[in-house]
Amino acid sequence: MQCKFVKKLRIYSIMHSFDSFIKRLEKSLAGNLPGQYSQYKLAPLVRKDQMRKIKDPSAGTPSGVLILFYPENEEIIIPFIRRPRYDGVHSGQIAFPGGKYEKDDKNLRATALREAREEIGIDPSGIRIIGELTSLYIPPSNFNVLPVVAYSESIPEFTIDPAEVDHMLKFSIREILNRKSLTKKGISMSNGMVFNTPCFLIRDQVIWGATAMMLNEMIDVIRMPGY
Fold first, then answer.
1. Cα separations (Å) of 8 from 2, 5, 11, 113, 210?
2. How far apart are CA 100 and CA 118, in angstroms?
3. What is the pLDDT of residues 145-194, one digit of tens each?
4. At residue 147, what are phi and psi to the nearest 5 degrees?
5. CA–CA dist 186, 189 (Å, integer)
6. 3-class state of residue 172 by DSSP
7. Which one, of 140, 107, 131, lies nearest residue 221 by Cα?
8. 56 Cβ neighbours under 8 A, 6+ residues apart
9. CA–CA separation, 188 vs 195, rounded Å?
């Protein structure tokens, strides 16, 4: 009986902490966002040069990605995907689930939810959207991406589409917020180009480029004064 009581108390504590985290996050997302200032801190040097030359980033292909929080094993988790190897600019990269807007999508929030369902099987009915980050233009693919922030109160049932996802990764907020995860790495591109870039290095997994830029803004929102 005591063991069951302790287990129920622990579950209540986890969910209470998660609920508090989400409420604070939703409030912060409704305020002034750090925006490009946060994003550019994790931008590769070549990306900064490319973006300076773009006259109208909003002219890029409208796209949406889903940044999803959920509780698991006393941690708050964000799922990521690794793209398959292919002949393209984002081959093999770690990313948030997402993709380009389609005409049947009501808006970019719907795009993010649809893409997350198609890529990793997330049921949209169990997801609640709480806000958005700053749109980010990605020059190599000409995408203008809206990061949509949401949560699930339980662990989603994941089903991976192997045509779009090599495998899924799950990182905790504790790992992501660890300042030691920020570093610089040499990245080798499919065209043979090698360059150093700021990135997140978590359990030997490198998150760089647009995903790192969006993630860094998310981190700065979480670290906002009064959060």
1. 10, 5, 5, 32, 40
2. 12
3. 999 999 999 999 999 999 999 999 999 999 999 999 999 988 876 666 77
4. -80, 120
5. 10
6. strand
7. 131
8. none
9. 7
**How many Å apart are CA 175 and CA 172, to the nearest integer?**
5
Predicted local confidence at residue 56, as pLDDT: 65
For the chain, residues with pLDDT lower than 50 are 1-14, 227
How far is 117 from 106, CA to CA, in rounded Å? 15
3-state secondary structure of 100: strand
Q: What DSSP assignment string belongs to 52-74? A: HT-S-GGGSEEEEEEEEEEEETT
H/E segment holding residue 211: helix 209-222
How far is it, in rounded angstroms, from Cα 79 to Cα 86? 22
Helix (H) or strand (E) holding 111: helix 108-120
Distances (CA, A) of 13 to 73, 142, 154: 12, 44, 14
What predicted TM-score, i.e. pTM, was given to this entire model? 0.88
Residues near 118 by Cβ (< 8 Å), separated by ≥ 6?
99, 161, 164
